[in-house]
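Reading a protein record of the kind used here takes only a little practice. An example makes this concrete, so a full record is given next.
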Amino acid sequence: MEYKNTTTRNLREIGEKLGVAHLLEGSVQRVANKVRVNAQLIDARNDAHLWAQTYDRDLADVFAIQSEIAEAIAQQLQAHLSSREKAQINTIPTTDLVAYDLFLRARQLGDLANNPDAKGSLLQAIMLLEEAVRRDPKFVRAHCLMCEIHLELYWGGFDHTDARRDLARVALQNAESLQPDSGEVHMQKGIYAYHGFRDYDRALSEFELARRLLPNEARLYEILGAVDRRTARWKEAEEVFRRAVELDPINFSVLEEAGFTFQGLRRYREAEPLLKRALAISPNDPFARGGLGWNAFCEKGDVTAWRKELESVANNGPEGARGVAFLSLLCAWAERDRAAAERAVALVPPEARLRAGLGLPRSN
């Protein structure tokens, strides 16, 4: 909803920020079981209105409206759609709108950026998805998301048990039984191999299959880049993260992970703008803030930036508290202050991602 305010937005600037030439603008009005959707296609470069249409339908037809709009835009832009792309456009994720709403709420809870209660949010997301698939057992995307969130609990150390991994396997099997050849299923099979078993070869194989079917899925490129990094395929990691940023330039996780990739390549000046863009979305994230300080330290041996970021995070109340200990540890390590480092370690909350970060000083 970042661009909802019509009085302050500049379409050319939005187009440039998103890296697109055309924008789709619209509104939705709902009365009882009826819905009106107004959509218009705009050339962001000159504010020219290329196409507009109003759809008055039953609420149950909302996904059909979405498909019609996509096909109309493709026609206006003279874009050729393959038979597979047309089939994807016309595929309805679920016939149950309540289930779809549960899915969207779960997906939002699964975004752990700057979340002080990551485990609680993930468990709540699982509950929502269980209700979604209870209402519609054929809801493939809900099964896939459930698999991924179970794996996040496992991989992130919140519940690193065979039982949790088995729950991910069951969700994946449910999705695969419904659409074994879908891109979403292949992507989840790759994540299952990666986060469940650290089987990088199998993960890469599944991701390549998924990429043929989901060539514009930013999440796929993000997770593929993470595997490339872990297998020292740095050139490939750089390429896929660049693509992920192109596809979703306002996604916090994509921007942060792309920044960390350039840090791994010791290209700190390329990492810096990516991390700053990530912080513009989630200002309290301790890793993005620590990353900016890391750039200054690696280039100049200066811990001033870390101290500045530490003060900023400390002033953000409970949401910032989780990052204080982590950033304090980096400062203490850089200053070779063992006593301060031990105090910082004792204060790091029992959150898997922060605890994993304790190994950073030892790895450099």
Notes: The two ends are 40 Å apart (CA to CA).
